[in-house]
Amino acid sequence: MPAPKYWREIPQRYRLEGAKCKGCGQVYFPPRLICSSCKSREFEMVNLQREGELLTYTIIRVPPSQFTDQSPYAIGIVELDRGVKILSQIVDCDLDKLEIGQRMRIEFRKIYSEGEAGIICYGYKCVPV
Amino acid sequence: MREVAIIGVGMNKWGELWYKSLRDIFTESALLAIDDAGVDHIDSMYVGCMSSGLFVGQEHLSSLLADYLGVCPIPSARIESACASGGLALRIGFLDVASGASDIVLVGGVEKMTDVPVEGATFALSTAADQEYEVYSGITFPGLYAMMAQAHMHKYGTTREQLAQVAVKNHHNGSMNPLAQFPQKVTVENVINSVMIADPLRILDCSPITDGAAAVILCPMDIAKKICKKPLVKITGSGNATDTIALHSREDITEIRSTKVAAEKAYKMADKKPEDIDLAEVHDCFTIAEICVIEALGFVEKGKGGKATEGGLTALDGKIPVNTSGGLKSKGHPVGATGIAQVCEIVKQLRGEANDRQVKNAKVGLTQNMGGSGGSSVVHIMEVV
Lengths: 129, 385
Prior knowledge:
The structure holds two protein chains of two kinds.
Chain A: H1 3-7, H2 10-15, E1 17-21, E2 27-28, E3 43-47, E4 51-60, E5 73-80, E6 85-90, E7 103-113, E8 120-128
Antiparallel strand pairs in A: 1-2, 1-3, 4-5, 4-7, 5-6, 7-8
Chain B: E1 4-11, H1 22-37, E2 44-48, H2 52-56, H3 61-68, E3 76-79, H4 85-99, E4 105-112, H5 118-126, H6 141-156, H7 160-174, H8 188-192, E5 196-198, E6 201-202, E7 211-220, H9 221-227, E8 233-242, H10 257-270, E9 279-281, H11 287-296, H12 305-310, H13 327-331, H14 335-351, E10 364-371, E11 376-384
Parallel strand pairs in B: 2-3, 2-4, 9-10
Antiparallel strand pairs in B: 1-7, 1-8, 4-7, 5-6, 8-11, 10-11
Helix pairs in contact in B: 4-14, 7-11
C-alpha cells in the first residue's frame, strides 16, 4: 500500500478519532465533511468509546491473501457505547464461544504486514471483555 | 416520457470461458439481441461492467465494445455500480429512450472474471465494499453476507435449512436452463455439508465466479408496435436507490434498504403492488441475500423470508416464482452481466419462451439487482402488453 494511503487513516486506526456533528450530535467514524442527517458541516473531534456490544459476527475460513496466515479468524460488527458501529476482527477468544450480545473491548493491534519490505499495518481489534 | 419496450434479448452459455475474450462474449450476446429484435442499426449503447480493469486490465469499454460490435461512431457508455452495474445500465438506457434522446438502444452487461487467479477475483470483488473500514480488517463478501445471515437467524429464527432451500430451489430451476453455469441439482444435505466459507455460509450458499454477458434492445413503444413480431414487453417501472457502503453503518443489518426504496419507486411508477408480481429475478449472490431481498420487495413480511422459502412460496410452482433462471447461484454471476441476464429471463417468461421452466400466465415480472452488501439497488417492473 502506498504510504500516504496508510498514513492519512492513522488518526482513526491508532486513536479512534471520530467526528461529532455540532448540529444534531450524530457521531461519525471515520469523520465526514457533511452530516447525512441534518446536513451541518460543523463537527468536533471525539474519541470513540472503547467498549460495546457484539451485533453479529462470522468466522472467515477463506481469507484475502494478506490474511492467509491468520485464518480462521472471527470478524464482527460492534456497537460502541456512543452508538457508533465498527467492523473489526475479534481476537483472543474461543471461536466456538462467540455470541451475539457479548461485551467487547477495543485494543490496538497489528492487522497484517506487507511482506519483508512493506508497511506493517496496525489498527483496532476487539477482544471479549 | 415515452413508453419503452424491450424488443430483443440475447445471452450465451455462461461458465469458465477460457477460450473467449471479454470483447467476444459481449459481442456474441449483443448480436443475439440485435437478431432477436430484428433491427438493422442501434442509436446508442450502454454496458454494465463492474471491474474490467482489475479482471482483464482493460478499461474504456465504451470504445472497445462499440468498435467490436461495428457500430462506431454511435454514443456509448460503460455504467458501474458494482454487481448492480447491469441493472443500472438498463435504467440509463430506459431513460435515454423515454426522454426521446435515442430510439433504438442496446443495453448490455459483461464480466470476464477467470483471467485472474481466484485471489485476484476476490480482491476485485472486495472493491465493492469499503476498502478502508471493512476490507482493511480482513472481511470478504461471503463474510459480509454471513454476518447478515447470523443476525437474521438470531433476530428472526431463520434456520440453516431455510438458507439451504434457496440454493436447492435455484439449482432446481437452473437445471432447466441450458445457459446456466452450474445446472446440477443440489439437496439440503449437499448444501449444509459443503465446505464452510464464512460461518454460517458454505460454498453452496455462494454464487460462483463466472465469465458471461447478456444484452437487450430497447425502443419506444410506437416503433416496437411496428417492428416487433413477438409479444410486446414494456418497462413500466424503474427504481434506483443507495445506502451506506459499509454494512456496519446501517441501522438494521438484516434489511436491504436500498432494495426497499428502489422497489417502492418502481411499484409507484408501474402502479403495481407486490401481490401483482407474477415472477421475479432477484440478486441471490448468497442464499441469505434472496431471503432479505424477498422481504425488502414486500413479497413477505420482514423476518419471514426463510419460512416462506421453505413453504414453497418462491418455488417454480409457488405463488411468486423467484429466480426461475436458476438465479446467480446456478446460472452464474458475471457481476456486470447479471442485471441484464435477469431481464432476459423475465422477457422470455413474459413472451412464453421459457420452455420447461415456463411460469403459467406470466404477465408482470420484476428484476432486482444490487451492488456490494446492498449499497446500491435497481428494480425494474416489466409487463407483457
